[in-house]
Amino acid sequence: MFSRIKVPFILCFFMLCIAIPPVWSQDPSGRPTKPTTDKPNNKPKADKPKPPPRTPVTIAPPTVLLTVLTEPAESEIYINGDKRGATNGEGRVVFEKMPLALYTVEARKEGFRNVSKPFNAGSDSPTLVFKLEPDLDTPAKQFETLIASGTLMGASPPNALALVTELSAKYPNHAEVVRMRGVLAAKLSDTVRPVVTNTVTGWRKVTRDELARAAEASAKAAELRSDDARTKSAAAYFRGVLALRDWQMGNSADGLGIAKNELEKITTSDATFAAAFYQLGVVSIITNDLRNAEMAFLNALRFEPRWAAANIGLGWVYYGSARPREAVDAYRNATTQDPTSAAAYAGLGLVRANRGEKDAVKEFDKAKQVDPASPMPHFYYGLFLSQSKKTKDLEQAEQELTTAIQKNTNNLEFQNSRVQQMITDIRSRRKK
């Protein structure tokens, strides 16, 4: 029986030993101590994963964007003395990522003065505007040299007109260029002023080339000084007298009409231009408009009372209008104003001879003496003799008129064709 009880007891005890956990012992403080395990731990410990390396964070310094505008365009831009670019065709260039700092920005272009400005990136406005002034020191010196030497214009440079034209195209409103234009216009006007007088007092002695050069010079002066009324009038005047000369020489069929139009415009807009009034009187005589011729010559004398030519014109008007007394007075005034004028003495002789004054012939002789080259004494004397019925007078008239044609080169005093017609009429009368 004991045996049967013993076996179950042992089994129960064994199971209790398995189920009940081990009891820890206490250390002297009364705290349980951790049991030690006798089993060796030969398993290697796993390495812990290392964290990825940290990338250092770099903080970029602050920058700004700089815009540069220039006039003129295509200017070179220097920053702190180093060329960094150029503005485009619109005068603009942009520089990015400019670190905060103080800079010196400079704009340069050939023919202009350099301009520099400070730029404090970060505090100043990020746009710089440069307006470059032309560097005209060298051209100005060249201009003064050309003016002093009288090299005003010509077919090829260097001359003052070519220089000013070039500068005006580049810098039309620059004060120095405007000054140059004014100076050159005045100098050109000075060169044509004596030619204006000569067209009245010595028409026969003024060559067509002189008239053409004066016309060109006055036209250029008018372009340079477009706001000056007298300069514009001078240009119109030489267009008119050049057209008149071409008509006299037979080179322009409508030259007389052109001359009349130009001269009338001047006398309307510039009522003190005496030479224009005088030439308008000449044109009026050619067209047999004696009334307007008288008015024109009188206006010329208002502003130039010492012009013998205007009195000579009046003398012819009065002669053609059957006003002999006034004609004599006009011609006498002319001989006083210009004792070397053959036309004045010849005109006086013509009027006096037609009045029946016996000593009138001496006026023709005087005229031939003071100017042997003039055709006027021969023309006026022949005109007087052509009115005679005597054969001898008519023969002499033909000789005088023939000589007048020979001396009247280029028809400058009268139209040779008309005088030739007078000769034809005299011959016809002589045959009867």
Write the layout of secondary structure elements.
Elements: H1 2-19, E1 63-71, E2 76-79, E3 82-86, E4 92-99, E5 102-108, E6 115-120, E7 127-131, H2 137-149, H3 160-170, H4 175-201, H5 208-224, H6 229-248, H7 255-269, H8 274-286, H9 290-303, H10 308-320, H11 324-337, H12 342-354, H13 361-370, H14 376-385, H15 391-407, H16 416-431
Parallel strand pairs: 1-7
Antiparallel strand pairs: 1-4, 2-3, 2-5, 5-6
Describe this structure in words.
With 432 residues, the chain is an alpha+beta fold. It has a domain at 63-131: Immunoglobulin-like (Sandwich), CATH 2.60.40. The chain is 56% helix and 10% strand. It is built from 16 helices and 7 strands. It has helices spanning 2-19, 137-149, 160-170, 175-201, 208-224, 229-248, 255-269, 274-286, 290-303, 308-320, 324-337, 342-354, 361-370, 376-385, 391-407, 416-431; strands at residues 63-71, 76-79, 82-86, 92-99, 102-108, 115-120, 127-131. The strands form 2 sheets. The protein has a 4-stranded antiparallel beta sheet, with no helix packed on it. A hairpin with a 6-residue loop joins strand 5 (102-108) and strand 6. Helix 15 packs antiparallel against helix 16 (416-431). The radius of gyration is 55 Å and the shape is rod-shaped. It starts with a helix and ends with a helix.
Class from secondary-structure proportions: alpha+beta
**Please, what is the CATH homologous superfamily of the domain at 63-131?**
Carboxypeptidase-like, regulatory domain
Largest sheet: 4 strands, antiparallel
What quaternary form is this?
single chain
Share of residues in helices: 55-70%
Count of helices?
16
Overall shape: rod-shaped
Name the poorly predicted regions. none
Enumerate the strands of the largest sheet in spatial order, edge to edge or round the barrel. Answer: 3-2-5-6
Give the topology string: H per helix, E per strand: HEEEEEEEHHHHHHHHHHHHHHH
Strand content: 5-15%
Please compute the radius of gyration using only Cα atoms. Answer: 55 Å
Mean pLDDT: 90
CATH class of the domain at 63-131: Mainly Beta
- What separation lies between the terminal Cα atoms? 212 Å
For the record, the CATH architecture of the domain at 63-131 stands as Sandwich
Query: How many distinct beta strands?
Result: 7
